[in-house]
Amino acid sequence: MNKTLLFLTLGLALLLTSCGGGGGGAPSPPLPQNFSVERDWARDASGHYDYTKQVVKMQWDSVNGASSYKIYKQREDESSPKFIDTTSNTSYTLALYDKDDLIKDITFFVSALLNGVEGKPASQLTSPLPPASPW
Q: What is the pTM of this model?
């Protein structure tokens, strides 16, 4: 019985080694290149920044074979990125309505989905609202 168990264990180990660890799944897609993020600082009629109309415009290069892309954001006071949306485009516009988004650094992320596998994300840090002019 011990010889049978040893034989099966060795056979399984050989099988896993020859299969590259047994995963054999689809490869992870590369991260999107040339990821850029622009925060549009909208102002109200009196010239003050209007946090209810803040817009973020993102774009990146297409990843060959990707079916879609996942968008995430993480404010400097958050411990991990939060999922925002999935898109099949290589650009995305996001309206931000939270006043804290106006005054915090935010890192945005985009990752490609290829055959159901999500790749590593590209990231871009954006700065908070510029300080008010002293004049």
A: 0.74
